[in-house]
Design a protein that fits this description.
Layout lengths: L3 H15 L2 E2 L1 E3 L6 H7 L3 E2 L1 E5 L2 E5 L5 E5 L5 E6 L11 E4 L3 E6 L3 E5 L1 H10 L11 H8 L6 H4 L11 H10 L13 H21 L41 E5 L2 E5 L30 E2 L5
Parallel strand pairs: 11-13
Antiparallel strand pairs: 1-3, 2-8, 4-5, 5-6, 6-10, 7-9, 8-9, 11-12
Bound molecules: zinc ion.
């Protein structure tokens, strides 16, 4: 699933190529024909990411709005246009470069009012240097939902997803089931600082790596796939810090991962059943338990 930094990266890479140019647009599978027709031939002023949403600014309060959802992604290349394959919702191109969009959950046109409503709806984004983390905290510390659920709520924090949620809670020794009301200001500031650091890294490199070199099996050189995370999809494997087997459970509709030793469970939470596995066997076995939503 594209997380905020990947969306921010799409905005930056496409802006470099398309901003200031007149673009052509079409919808080979027909589902976004009206949208494509409305922007075809217009000059694109710029592209910005708001949380996981992309807004293409065509001036005069006209915007193309794209939300990638869980499966949306872009392909890009040099002209000419490649042969149409798969369900191709939208193409945007110039005489030199093309971008193809597939799998997005929203492709529509926004005016200034809808843009403002979107901005008001999305919480502060760690990738935005002007974002105020205390705007998120104001909601978190009043909430009886778990911090694991709250961090996935885009109206509280914009742009973060499942990987960052698990990883940053581990870094700060916070169990995902702890209630928002139990998170103090200092802990939230530390969580935010880590979100900014790892999300900026993701936005620059286009790849999510959250581990410090000293915590990797291979500390030097290129980061191996298996060394990228502390807990995400590492259920049944030993914690990099203490050796306890990493646990997983469903929280909301997505799996969350944590170390039962480094992230002490709040009172009343039952101990997870974790079965040991080898690094090669797939994560998320039948052992997954379901955590209560606590909201
Ligand atoms: Zn641990």
């Amino acid at each position: 699933m594209p997380e905020g930094p990947q969306v921010a990266r799409y905005a930056r890479l496409q802006s470099e190529v398309l901003a200031g140019k007149r673009v052509r647009a079409d919808s080979p599978n027909g589902r976004s024909e009206d949208v494509a027709a409305a922007i075809d031939g217009l000059k694109l002023l710029g592209i910005e990411a708001i949380g996981k949403h992309l807004l293409y600014d065509f001036g005069k309060e006209r915007y193309l709005h794209v939300h990638l959802g869980r499966f949306g992604n872009f392909d890009a290349g040099a002209m000419p246009l490649p042969e149409v394959r798969g369900i191709l919702r939208l193409r945007i191109y110039t005489s030199k470069r093309w971008f193809e969009l597939r799998g997005a959950i929203a492709i529509d046109l926004y005016d200034a009012e809808r843009r403002a409503a979107l901005e008001a709806r999305i919480g502060p984004n760690p990738l935005d240097p002007d974002a105020d983390p205390m705007r998120a905290y104001a909601k978190i510390h009043k909430s009886r939902s778990s911090i694991g659920m709250l961090m996935m709520d885009q109206s509280i924090v914009g742009g973060i997803g499942n990987i960052y949620r698990s990883e940053v809670l581990f870094m700060n020794r916070v169990h995902p089931l702890r209630l928002g009301t139990s998170i103090d200001r200092k802990t939230w500031r530390a969580i935010w600082k880590d979100l900014v650091r790892v999300m900026e890294h993701g936005a620059i490199h286009g790849r999510i790596v959250t581990t410090d070199p000293k915590d990797r099996e291979k500390p030097a050189g290129a980061v191996r796939r298996t060394d990228r995370f502390y807990v995400y999809h590492r259920d049944g494997l030993p914690c990099r810090r203490c050796g306890t087997l990493v646990a997983t459970a469903e929280l909301g509709t997505r799996k969350v991962f944590w170390c039962p030793h480094d992230q002490p469970a709040p009172d009343g939470a039952s101990a997870p059943h974790v079965r040991k596995r080898s690094a090669k066997s797939p994560s998320g076995s039948a052992q997954t338990s379901r955590l209560p939503k606590t909201s």
